[in-house]
């Protein structure tokens, strides 16, 4: 089935006794055993599995062409479950502009447990040269946050396979509609489902999808079920509901993202625009090869200094000045002040998440804020 169809039907795993067309919310934390001690409904205890989480995991696994998926209570816990599943002393090759929450996890929680290098992964020779005997994971984020750098998934997969290293891809900015890293050779895909999958800025969540149910996946499932950072059945229900419209929401995000990028590109107050869909983007060809469309995320540099960027962000009326992305409402933020004093993000950079409002209203708002 095509993604539009899967997104709607993959969550209907069981026929409900009351004939519901959509899967009801199952809030029970525990499930009946039969006389032999087995669990006739397929679930034992809600932390281990429950009907709503199974429906969600099945849907996302199918959308990403994986064998299985594991849902978590946030994107951060999804990524952390993979780091926790590595043996102490393992080395990770991570991107230099890795999502700052993950960078912070490695630098604080895992500082004495794992080794890591943060490198420019658009430089494939550097990726190859960074492999050490104890390298166990190449973690890629593409498109990246906040510079929208695009990394060649297929090329990284080749490098990782040859060296027998697990290759995981944070594909949050693309969503399963625009990019499927497993089809390009990734072992594991990660999404912050707080973003496009949820799509309405009202559910926190994260997910890992695996190409194969291998030994590492067993460890990850153990971290999920015994570690217990799982989403509630209600969150799983909401997310499953959101995913039904994902393919159509992505069309709107991509269309608005592209038009905003083109508008900003031609604006006298704008120095540069980072959007993978612009032919001026340094990795536009790679983006064209591995993405179906270019998404709703973009960043731009304004003329002047950090103060000027903050002024623009404070002047918008329709865009919400807030962090995060992927919701129906457009968001804008001065990224350097979110990331704190050690960030390498340029002070003049403004990040935009294009929502689903009418493009004319969005452009008019940016026009008055920049003017
Ligand atoms: C938001 C985000 C995360 C973290 O997800 P949370 O749901 O906020 O914990 C990870 N990676 C990327 C690219 C993100 O945008």
Automatic annotation (TrEMBL):
Keywords: Aminotransferase, Pyridoxal phosphate, Transferase. InterPro entries: Cys/Met-Metab_PyrdxlP-dep_enz (IPR000277), Cys_met_metab_PP (IPR054542), PyrdxlP-dep_Trfase (IPR015424), PyrdxlP-dep_Trfase_major (IPR015421), PyrdxlP-dep_Trfase_small (IPR015422). Its cofactor is pyridoxal 5'-phosphate. The keyword Transferase applies. GO terms for molecular function: transaminase activity. Gene3D superfamilies: Aspartate Aminotransferase, domain 1, Type I PLP-dependent aspartate aminotransferase-like (Major domain). It comes from the Bacteria. Belongs to the trans-sulfuration enzymes family. This is Aminotransferase class V-fold PLP-dependent enzyme.
């Amino acid at each position: 089935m095509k993604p539009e169809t899967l997104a709607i039907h993959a969550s209907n795993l069981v026929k409900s006794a009351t004939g519901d067309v959509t899967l009801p919310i199952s809030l029970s934390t525990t499930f009946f055993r039969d006389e032999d001690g087995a669990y006739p409904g397929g679930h034992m205890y809600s932390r281990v599995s429950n009907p709503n989480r199974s429906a969600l995991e099945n849907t996302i696994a199918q959308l990403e062409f994986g064998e299985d998926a594991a849902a978590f209570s946030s994107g951060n816990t999804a990524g952390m479950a993979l780091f926790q599943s590595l043996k102490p002393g393992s080395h990770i090759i991570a991107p230099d502009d890795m999502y700052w929450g993950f960078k912070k996890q490695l630098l604080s929680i895992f500082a004495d447990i794992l080794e890591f290098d943060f490198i420019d992964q658009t430089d494939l020779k550097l990726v190859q040269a960074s492999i050490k005997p104890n390298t166990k994971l190449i973690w890629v984020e593409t498109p990246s946050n906040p510079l929208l750098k695009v990394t060649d998934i297929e090329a990284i997969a080749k490098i990782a396979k040859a060296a027998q290293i697990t290759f995981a891809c944070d594909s949050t900015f693309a969503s399963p509609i625009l990019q499927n890293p497993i089809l390009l050779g990734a072992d594991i895909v990660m999404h912050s489902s707080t973003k496009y999958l949820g799509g309405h800025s009202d559910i926190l969540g994260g997910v890992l999808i695996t190409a194969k149910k291998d030994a590492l996946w067993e460890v990850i499932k153990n971290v999920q079920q015994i570690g217990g950072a799982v989403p509630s059945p209600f969150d799983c229900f909401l997310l499953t509901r959101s995913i039904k419209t994902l393919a159509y929401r992505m069309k709107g995000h991509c269309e608005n993202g592209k038009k905003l990028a083109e508008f900003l590109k031609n604006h006298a107050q704008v120095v540069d625009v980072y959007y993978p869909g612009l032919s001026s983007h340094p990795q536009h060809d790679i983006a064209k090869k591995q993405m179906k469309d270019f998404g709703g995320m973009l960043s731009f540099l304004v003329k002047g200094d950090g103060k000027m960027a903050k002024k623009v962000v404070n002047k918008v009326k329709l865009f919400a000045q807030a962090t995060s992305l992927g919701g129906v409402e457009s968001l804008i933020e001065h990224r350097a002040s979110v990331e704190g004093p050690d960030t390498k993000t340029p002070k003049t950079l403004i990040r935009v998440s294009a929502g689903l409002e009418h493009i004319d209203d969005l452009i008019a708002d940016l026009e008055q804020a920049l003017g």
